[in-house]
Design a protein that fits this description.
The complex is a heterodimer of chains A (396) and B (118). Chain A has 396 residues and is α+β, with helices and mostly antiparallel strands. In chain A, 38% of the residues lie in helices and 24% in strands. Chain A has 11 helices and 16 strands. Chain A has a 6-stranded antiparallel β-sheet with strand order 6-7-16-15-12-13. A 5-stranded parallel β-sheet of chain A has the order 2-1-3-4-5, sandwiched between helices. In chain A, strands 8-9-10-11-14 form a 5-stranded antiparallel β-sheet. In chain A, strand 3, helix 3 and strand 4 form a beta-alpha-beta unit. Chain B has 118 residues and is mostly helical. Chain B starts with 7 loop residues before the first helix and ends with a helix. Chains A and B meet through helix 1 of A and helix 2 and helix 3 of B.
């Protein structure tokens, strides 16, 4: 016996015939069945609409003149229904005046079929309607497929954002005499922002904020990878120092630019309770401010390449004294590069002004207050990039 | 062979010479046609042009299947008179429709009887 490799026969396409006149309906139904279609019949517009919803036929042929819901009214109801609006409708009529054809098309019909049409014309118009229906169905399938993939991607991004959140430090007192608060708003596309604390005993702690270039899961994973490198034990083994410049120099060597151009910006600070100093180094990161107790603001920046650009780069540390009431503020560029309605960025100057204005607030309220200021500039509540804010206040 | 009131050959061709379907249609029309005719008469009695238009249109759709030009024309005239609200003229035209319908119904009965005896 020869195996049969021919594809299984496709299910017949379905035509819904809506006509209150039974003799004409029987005649048309017989013709359509002979053409190989599955035929559903309705004797009025209301039943036709119910069958449309229930069976989603490929093509619907509707008589123009019917009691209660006539053909054009049925077309209008279909076009207003989001689930039915892509249905293909042939309006069947004895009216073949241009004005009436225009009215039928304007009210939602896709094509016309004269009641006195020859069998060749009926066949041709039904086949044309079926071709259009197949095209619409394939577009709908493609749209549903894209929507499904988008949902999967968003779930993955949400899961990655949850993972990034799980890596963040707790809020509150970390060092004797220093309190840390923070805010993190991952964008819909998930950027690569991450910040954390490195605990070096009772007297010192490291605090960093990094940003992996690009968006999506791969950026988040690269950030997590650098964050693992920046753990206390890892730094002890791989760097052997808690000097921010030495740490960034080694990180730059270990994390070269990826094949598709991926790199990091980072600011790394070390707060020392004994010497009451902050030591910092940055690699292409502009968002670090030191606000003195009297409100004066100092930018903790230095011209240096981001990590990964050049393997021989040496990053130098700088030191600033700390006093009670001083605040250290680290931000990701998603905050100060928030675009306003005219695409103008919020900018570091406006950020500095906001920090100045908000100085009287308790430290705990600073991150959310800064987010509110940036959101007001943005004009809506979805940042296009991740936003991270970390604030530390030195107590007396 | 063309009948004097309708063309059965053409009518059969419309259903791809499916005699069974044709007989079904004829039986359906023998039942439904007189009801539609009565509905036209009732609309004329009530002087209701909208009802006249609807019932004449419905009968016209059925008659079209039997390729009966004189009956088709009579229903078409009545539909047009109904649309333009000329019920008095329609009452006069109704006589012609009734006579042609009687001929068509008789021709269909004869055809069905022939079909059943063959």
């Amino acid at each position: 016996m020869t195996p049969d490799f021919s594809p299984p026969p496709a299910a017949p396409q379905t035509v819904l015939l809506v006509d209150d006149e039974p003799v004409a309906r029987l005649s048309m139904s017989a013709r359509l069945k002979r053409l190989g279609y599955r035929v559903l019949e309705a004797g009025d517009g209301k039943t036709g609409l119910a069958l449309l919803r229930q069976e989603r036929p490929d093509l619907t042929i509707v008589d123009w003149m019917m009691p209660e819901i006539d053909g054009p009214s049925l077309c209008e109801l279909v076009r207003r229904d989001p689930l039915l609006q892509s249905s293909q409708i042939l309006l069947m009529t004895g009216h073949d005046q241009p004005q009436q054809i225009a009215e039928g098309l304007a009210r939602g019909a896709d094509d016309f079929l004269s009641k006195s049409a020859s069998k060749q014309e009926i066949t041709a118009r039904v086949q044309a309607g079926m071709r259009a229906a197949s095209l619409v169905r394939s577009l709908e399938r493609a749209r549903d497929d894209i929507q499904h993939k988008q949902e999967l991607l968003e779930r993955e991004l949400q899961s990655a954002a949850d993972y990034v959140r799980s890596l963040l430090p707790p809020q509150g007192a970390i060092l004797p005499g220093a309190t840390v608060v923070h805010a993190f708003r991952p964008s819909l596309g998930l950027g690569g922002d991450l910040f954390n604390i490195v605990e070096w005993g009772d007297a010192a702690m490291g605090l960093y904020l990094l940003d992996a270039s690009g968006h999506g899961v791969s950026s988040a994973l690269r950030s997590a990878s650098l964050s693992t490198f920046l753990r206390r034990d890892s730094l002890r083994h791989q760097v052997g120092s808690n000097d921010p410049g030495a740490i960034l120099t080694e990180a730059n060597r270990c994390f070269p630019m990826t094949e598709d151009g991926g790199y990091f910006t980072i600011v790394f600070t070390r707060l020392d309770a004994r010497t009451r100093t902050v030591t910092y180094a940055s690699a292409g990161h502009g968002g670090a401010l030191l606000q003195r107790a009297d409100g004066h603001i100092l930018a903790l920046s230095q011209p240096a390449l981001p990590l990964g650009f050049c393997p021989d780069t040496r990053y130098e540390s700088r030191v600033e004294p700390l006093a009670a009431g001083d605040r250290l503020l680290l931000f990701s560029d998603g905050l100060y590069e928030a675009p306003g309605p005219t695409k103008e960025l919020w900018g570091l100057e406006r950020l500095r002004a906001a920090v100045q204005r908000l100085r009287p607030l308790e430290l705990e309220r600073i991150p959310e207050a800064l987010l509110d200021e940036a959101l007001e500039w943005l004009g809506h509540d979805l940042f296009p990039d991740d936003v991270a804010i970390v604030a530390v206040e030195v107590k007396g | 062979m063309p009948d004097s009131v309708c063309d059965f050959d053409e009518s059969l061709a419309r259903v791809d010479h499916d005699v069974e379907i044709f007989h079904c249609m004829a039986k359906l029309f023998l039942d439904q046609g007189p009801k539609d005719l009565a509905a036209i008469h009732a609309a004329l009695t009530l002087r209701d042009p909208a009802a006249l238009t609807r019932s004449a249109h419905r009968l016209k759709g059925a008659v079209l299947q039997f390729c009966a030009p004189s009956v088709f024309q009579a229903t078409r005239d009545l539909e047009a008179l109904g649309k333009s609200g000329r019920v008095e003229e329609a009452a006069q035209a109704y006589g012609a429709l009734k006579a042609e319908m009687d001929r068509l119904l008789e021709a269909l009965r004869r055809r069905l009887a022939e079909g059943e005896s063959s």
